[in-house]
Amino acid sequence: MTYLALILSVLIGVIIVFGLKPSNKFVQLLLAFSGAYLLSITILHLFPEVYIGNKSNIGLYIILGLLLQLILDFFSKGAEHGHIHIHDNIAFPWALFISLGIHAFMEGIPLAHNHNHEHLLWAIVIHKIPISIILATFFVKSKISKNHAILFLILFALMSPFGSLAGENISILATYKTEITAIIIGVFLHISTIILFETSKDHKFNLLKFIAILVGMIVAYLA
Questions:
Q1: pLDDT digit string (tens) for 173-184?
Q2: Which end of the chain has the lower number of beta carbons within 10 A, N or C?
Q3: CA angle at residue 192 from 37 to 66, to 5 degrees?
Q4: Where are its TM segments located (predicted)?
Q5: The pLDDT of residue 106 is above 70
Q6: What mean pLDDT do residues 126-150 have?
């Protein structure tokens, strides 16, 4: 179920790109909803999980996750939170693909042996849909062939399941599950807060974005 949900989240994003041809406004609203859901799940469920074990230096690992996402942002150009500009006939975005792949692999690791497995799983699934839309749109606009685009989308879809599989079978990852989860919390905090609290265009209140954020928080609370 876990692996299937993670793979389907990418497939849904691809279907939206090719079937609905979403506008930038739609993607931004979807990002706002996913960011609110991600932040709420992080605060309501992941924070208590990493601190309940009384392990030392948990805060340090959260800060490390924030710094790690800053580095990944340098290569992905902020695709995780929608800060991306797509032009026709661009070269294959290797830096973007590798950065998003690392991000997807890492967020899959804490799914193994996790008491809040379902909460974290759905947070990742909801977050991956708009990211998959952005990545698929990149492939459509790039010079890469359709077959290669499909191959790379399949690889991206498998990265989070690979991370979860690694967390289940590599002993050192299981041993440091709490610390790794804390790093992922830092990553999630960076992404979600930028999505939610970035300055709106012309500093105007965006009612639709506010509603999307509010719905995301309510859904996370009721989950």
A1: 888 888 988 999
A2: N
A3: 135
A4: 6-22, 29-47, 59-79, 91-113, 119-140, 152-174, 180-198, 205-222
A5: yes
A6: 82
Q: How many CB atoms lie within 10 A of CB 63?
A: 15
Alpha-carbon Rg for the chain, nearest whole angstrom, is 17
Residue 210 tokens read as 């506010």
What whole-number distance in Å separates Cα of residue 30 and Cα of residue 81?
11
Tokens linked to 218: 């309510």
Task: Indicate whether 88 pLDDT > 60.
Answer: no
Write down the pLDDT at residue 201.
57
Q: Under a CB-based contact definition with an 8 Å cutoff, are residues 45 and 120 in contact? A: yes
Three-class SS of residue 4? helix
Nearest to 66 by CA among 202, 171, 156, 193: 193
Q: Give 144's DSSP letter.
A: -
